[in-house]
Structures are given as structure tokens and as C-alpha cells.
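Hello again,

I reread your note about wanting to compare the complex against the isolated chains. To keep things tidy I'm splitting this into two emails, and this first one only covers the full assembly. Below are the input lines as submitted, including protein chains and any nucleic acid or small-molecule components. They are followed by the predicted structure of everything together. The single-chain runs will come separately.
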Amino acid sequence: MSAVEQKVRGFILENFMFTNDESVLSSEESLLEKGVIDSTGVMELVAFLEDEYQFQVNDDELVPENLDSVQNIVAFVGGKGAAS
Amino acid sequence: MQYRIRPADVVQDRDTILRLWRQVFPFPESHPVKYDWCYGQTPQGAGRLYLLEYADQTQVIGVQGIVPRRWWVKGEVVGCGICADLVVDQYHRSIGPALTLVRQVVEREQQEKQACLLYGFPNQKSEALYRRAGYSKMGMINRYAKPLRLHIWLRRKGLAKPLASTLGKVFDLVNQIRLSLRLRRSMQYGKLVELSQFDARFDELWSRVSKTAGPMAVRDSGFLQWRFGNNFAGQTRIMALQAMDDSIDGYIVYIVGQNKLITVLDFLASDNTTVLSVMLGLFAREMYRQGYHGIMLEFGGLADIAHCLQKLGFSLRETQPVYRVTELAGQQAEADALYLTSCDRDQ
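Full-complex prediction:
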């Protein structure tokens, strides 16, 4: 597991699922469909990513393809890192 | 864009909005009363509601309200609004709708110059949403508590009953002696009296206070009557510091909650040091005499008042940020010049 994935999983587990049990969160499943995060939760997640990785998430990047699963988030952070 | 907002018709869209409220807010039986109270005609003007719709289906899937308030800023009354009652339908809590709603409400209010200041009290989970929508922190509102019967609080902390009772009674006695010493010259400031209504003396007090006040909501009798007279169905009580000539130098509005806890909803004094300290001290003593267990109150802003509360034995329990967008009459509201109490929330 990459350092980014570890950080992202840790944030989601602690802030939205209130557990440290890694087994309850798979990397592929949809966070929105599973009800892990909602519209305000997405903004919390975005604020966390912006603070943690020092980049700006643009409005047009607020899409499920970037933020709806751990896997997508990790890829999105990787892409932003590469871009900067 | 997939979502768009439109101003609600307060009468025609009432049922739709109440349906959305029921998804989120507790005590549905109180919703119609709150709706009419906040979004009907108020002394501050009519409330405003904005609906979030699917652009192509005109299906209402969200709502946000702006509860009007009048603030006193640099000698002028300006229209402000409290952002309240944000709801997004449970099937649309995905990426985008809530942000679209909050952001477009701000844009619409700014375009139409509805309010010089929009402010709100987002909970921890909503802070990021509000920041993203353009809000920034205006200050903090803090919750303070003052135990009056310490043995109750010590027992809640897990202390054995006999020990809590003995220690509590000793501490209560010491606190009452300290308070009496502090209040030994309070007679010159008048006496604390219970009032049944917000009469013309409240206007006179507000007129005096407003001469030196920083940015704060107008607290005249019309506002106080609307804010506390109807909404709490006769549960609110008023204590005032009454001078020898029957004028008032301060007031405290409060309710008695569960477990004999007093919740102060608003307070104001003609000065924020001595008079306020005397009034709150007399109030604490009176509440102790009446057998209550503790006093809770919220305040945010002026450092003098926070200092006064701490000296009177109020300890800080919780703190919540207050966010704002747009400026106060062209001036940034300085956090430490504000005056915020529970009264400044939407309900």
C-alpha cells in the first residue's frame, strides 16, 4: 500500500467510518454509493487533500471519477502531483 | 450545469420545503411554526428561501434559507442574513449539489444586494463546504457553563455520592461567599427584577448601548419580542437590572431546561465590565437561590465580556466557528469587536 493510500484510508476510516478496522473499506468500492461520504463529506475530503498535499482542487475536478473511491482518490492525488 | 437554484415562493413552496426539512431536522411537529416564524414577515423583513432543482426536471432536491437580521454597524442599521436550514435530498448527497446550492445562494444574495453580511454557524462537518463556497471565518461563538450546585457536576464526573456531596457543598458555600463579596457594592447599580415583556425601557437601553457598540444585531424591543416572545411559547423569562428610577441597565433572557439547567439566550448591559459583571453575578446568585444546578450561555466577540465571564466562574466548554461572506458595510467585521449570543442564531 502506498503512503498516499495509507493516508487517505486513514482519513476516511477515522472521520467517516469512525473505526480503524481496515477491512471495512475496500479500495474499489464507491464511497458515495456505500453512504460513507455525502456532499458535505466530499468537501471535508477535498479540504483534507488540499491541506495534506498542498494543491488546489478545481471545481471541474469535483467528479466521482476523482473522488468516489480510495483507488480513484489515490490516482487523482498522483495525477495532481505529477501535474505540479 | 446539472443543478440550478431559484428563489422559493414562501407560500407556494411551503409544503415542498417542509418535506425536505423532515428528512433532516428533528421535531417535525415544530417545523411549520419555525417556517412561518423565520420566513414570514419579521421585524427584520421577510425571510428568503432558495430551492435547488435538477435543471431539466424541475424537481426540488435542496433548500437553503436566509433568515433576515438587522445589524448595527458604525451608526447605521444594515440588513444581514443568517444562512440556515440547508438541506439536500438524501438521494442527491453526491459531489456537487450542496456546493452548488450554497455558492449560488451567496451569488444571488450579492447580485441582488439583499444583505450586507451573510453569516452562519456551520457544524464541523459543514465547515469545508462553506469555505469552498466562499465563506471565511468571522469569529467564534463559545459555550460557557457555570455550575451552581457543584455536587451534581462532581457526581456526573464519577465521584462517589458522599464525597461529591461534601466537597460540592463546601465549594458551593465558598463560591457563594466569593460572589457575595464581589456583589457587596452592587446596590448602587439597582436590583435584578423579573419582567414579563420587552417594554419601552429595552429601546432606551438599546439606544444607549448602540452609541458605543461594535457590529452587532439590533436588540430593540421589537426584535426581542419577535425573537423570544412568540417562538418559545411563553417559556422564556426575562430578568433585568433595574435602576432606582425604573430604567434598566441590562437584561438576561433565559429558559429553564432539563436537569434544572438555565440556558441564557441573550444578555445585554449598558457597560460590558462593571454593570455586566454585577448583573450576571446577581443572576447567578438568584438562580442558586431558586435551586437551579447550573447556567449555560453562549458568547462570541468582545474580549472584555469573555474576561468578565471567566471571572464570574463561567468556564469554556465548547467553541464553534462563525463563518461569513460579504463585508459589513464595506468593513471587515473584526472578530474581537463582535457581539454574538445564542440570540444571533437562526433559532
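For quick reference: The first helix of chain A runs from residue 3 to 17.

B.
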